C-alpha cells in the first residue's frame, strides 16, 4: 500500500476541476459556518491551517497582507539578516531559471515577512496586486494559509495548491516552501518559497525547494554567518560601530559599544535613558533638569553630577558630554527604533521589537513619563491598525491585561471562536470588577 505524503498538494501532479470544486465547497462551509464542512475532503495540514487563520481573524475576502517594511528600513533589515549571506546560493539554484519556469522565488524571515521577491517579472507584477512583495507580512496570522506562512507555522516543507489558500484573492496561485534553520542552534531563520501556477504544486518542485533550503543551511555553516558565531565574535570584542542601548523590558539598560557590552546600574540606566530622550529631541540636560527627572521630591543636582561623573568614567567621555549633559554622536536605542517603525506605519515590526515597558523597575519621574509615552504610542498604533493579529498579540502583553479598550477592540474584530470568547470574558470581567484606572 502506497503512503501519500501529506505535505504534497498534488501527489499525482494533476489538480483537476473536481479537486478545486471540493476544496472551495469545504472552504465556503468553514468560513461562512453554513452547513457542515467536509473536513475529510481537505488535507489535514490545510484544514488545520484554515482553522488557525479563522481564529486569527484573517478575512478570506479582505484587504491584502500589510507591508511592514519599506525603503531604507527594509534594506537595513535585509542586510543584517542571516539569510542575506546565502542569497547567491538561492539565486543560483532557483532564481536563475525562474523566468523560464514561470515562477517567483521569495525568501522570508521567521515571522513571514518577505525580504526578497525575485524571478519572473510579469508574474511579480501580477503578484503585487495581492501584496506578494518585499516587506509584506505573509505569516499565517496576517495572510492566512499559504506555503511560506504555513511552512513557518509548522516548521516543515509544504505545498499549497490554489484553492487550498485561505484568502480567496490568492487562490489563483500555488506555492511550495521550506523553512531554513540556523545550522548550529536549529533556530528558525525564515523560509524559501516558489510561487506560480498549478505546476508549482507538483512534487518535484517541493523537492527542489527543500534541496535549496538544505544548501542554504550548509552555506551558512561554511560561512560562519549563523547567529551563534556572530554572538561569539561580539563577545570577543568585534562590536557594532554605533553604540546601541537596550532598555525595553529590562530593569537595567544594556549598552553595546566598541569597548564591549555593559549592564548599567539602575541610576546610570535612568540617566542614559533621559539623555537619549533629550537627544531624540535634539537637546541636552542640565544637572538640575536631570535631578528633577531622576529624584522624585528632591532636586539633588550635586548627586546627579557625581553619578554622571562615574557614568562618564564607565562608558567614556566620547559617549557622554557635559555643559549641557548630552549623548555624543549617534546612539541607537530600541525605544527609538519602535517609535521610528510606528512613524513609518510598520506597526507589526514595531510590536515585534517592543519587548516590554521601558525600564519597568524605575520610579524616576522622567523615566516614568518616557515609559508612558512609548506605551501609549504602541497602544494607539495597534488599536488604530484594526488588525486582529496585532490586537491579539498586544493583548497578550502584561500591560494590556486590564486594558478594557484593548479587549473591546479585540471583541469587535475577532470572528466567532475561542479567542473571541476569551476576549468577551475579559471585557465582562473588567466591566464588572471594581472601578480602577482602566484604560478605555
Spell out the blueprint of helices and strands.
Elements: H1 17-32, H2 44-55, H3 71-80, H4 87-93, E1 103-109, E2 114-119, H5 121-127, H6 140-143, H7 147-154, E3 158-160, E4 174-181, E5 188-196, H8 203-223, H9 227-235, E6 244-246, E7 254-257, E8 260-263, H10 266-280, H11 287-294, H12 301-315, E9 320-321, E10 326-327, E11 332-333, H13 334-343, H14 347-353, H15 365-385, H16 388-395, H17 404-413, H18 418-432
Parallel strand pairs: 6-11
Antiparallel strand pairs: 1-2, 1-5, 3-4, 4-5, 6-7, 7-8, 9-10
Please explain how this structure is put together.
With 440 residues, the protein is α+β, with helices and mostly antiparallel strands. It folds into three domains: 17-227, Beta-Lactamase; 239-385, no CATH class; 387-440, no CATH class. It is 46% helix and 11% strand. The protein has 18 helices and eleven strands. The strands form three sheets. It has a five-stranded antiparallel sheet, with helices on both faces. Strands 8-7-6-11 form a four-stranded mixed sheet. Strands 9-10 form a two-stranded antiparallel sheet. α4 (87-93) runs antiparallel to α8, α11 (287-294) crosses α12 and α13 runs parallel beside α15 (365-385). The model is unreliable at 225-229, 236-240 and 434-438 (pLDDT under 50).
Amino acid at each position: 500500500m502506497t503512503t501519500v505524503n501529506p505535505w504534497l498538494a498534488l501527489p499525482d501532479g494533476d489538480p483537476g476541476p473536481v479537486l478545486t470544486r471540493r476544496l472551495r465547497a469545504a472552504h465556503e462551509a468553514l468560513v461562512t459556518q453554513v452547513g457542515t464542512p467536509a473536513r475529510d475532503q481537505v488535507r489535514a495540514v490545510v484544514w488545520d491551517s484554515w482553522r488557525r487563520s479563522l481564529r486569527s481573524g484573517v478575512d478570506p475576502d479582505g484587504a491584502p497582507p500589510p507591508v511592514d517594511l519599506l525603503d531604507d528600513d527594509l534594506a537595513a533589515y535585509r542586510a543584517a539578516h542571516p539569510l542575506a549571506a546565502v542569497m547567491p546560493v538561492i539565486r543560483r539554484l532557483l532564481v536563475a531559471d525562474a523566468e523560464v519556469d514561470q515562477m517567483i522565488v521569495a525568501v522570508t524571515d521567521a515571522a513571514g515577512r518577505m525580504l526578497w521577491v525575485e524571478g519572473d517579472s510579469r508574474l511579480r507584477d501580477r503578484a503585487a496586486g495581492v501584496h506578494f512583495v518585499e516587506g509584506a507580512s505573509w505569516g499565517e496570522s496576517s495572510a492566512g494559509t499559504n506555503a511560506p506562512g504555513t511552512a513557518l507555522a509548522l516548521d516543515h516543507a509544504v505545498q499549497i495548491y490554489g484553492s487550498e489558500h485561505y484568502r480567496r484573492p490568492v487562490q489563483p496561485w500555488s506555492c511550495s516552501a521550506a523553512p531554513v534553520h540556523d545550522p548550529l542552534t536549529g533556530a528558525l531563520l525564515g523560509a524559501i518559497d516558489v510561487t506560480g501556477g498549478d505546476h508549482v504544486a507538483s512534487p518535484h518542485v517541493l523537492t527542489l525547494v527543500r534541496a535549496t533550503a538544505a544548501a542554504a543551511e550548509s552555506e551558512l555553516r561554511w560561512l560562519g554567518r549563523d547567529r551563534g558565531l556572530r554572538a561569539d565574535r561580539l563577545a570577543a570584542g568585534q562590536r557594532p560601530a554605533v553604540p546601541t542601548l537596550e532598555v525595553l523590558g529590562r530593569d537595567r539598560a544594556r549598552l553595546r559599544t566598541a569597548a564591549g557590552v555593559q549592564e548599567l546600574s539602575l541610576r546610570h540606566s535612568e540617566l542614559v535613558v533621559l539623555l537619549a530622550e533629550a537627544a531624540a529631541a535634539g537637546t541636552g540636560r542640565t544637572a538640575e533638569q536631570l535631578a528633577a527627572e531622576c529624584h522624585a521630591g528632591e532636586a539633588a543636582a550635586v548627586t546627579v553630577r557625581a553619578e554622571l561623573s562615574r557614568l562618564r568614567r564607565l562608558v567614556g567621555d566620547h559617549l557622554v558630554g557635559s555643559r549641557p549633559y548630552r549623548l555624543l554622536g549617534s546612539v541607537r536605542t530600541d525605544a527609538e527604533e519602535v517609535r521610528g517603525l510606528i512613524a513609518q506605519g510598520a506597526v507589526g515590526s514595531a510590536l515585534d521589537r517592543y519587548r516590554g515597558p521601558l525600564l519597568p523597575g524605575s520610579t524616576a519621574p522622567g523615566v516614568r513619563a518616557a515609559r508612558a509615552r512609548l506605551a501609549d504610542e504602541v497602544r494607539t498604533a495597534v488599536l488604530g491598525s484594526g488588525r486582529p493579529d496585532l490586537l491579539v498579540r498586544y493583548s497578550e502583553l502584561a500591560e494590556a491585561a486590564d486594558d478594557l479598550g484593548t479587549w473591546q477592540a479585540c471583541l469587535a474584530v475577532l470572528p466567532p471562536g475561542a479567542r473571541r470568547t476569551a476576549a468577551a470574558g475579559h471585557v465582562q470581567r473588567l466591566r464588572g470588577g471594581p472601578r480602577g484606572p482602566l484604560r478605555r
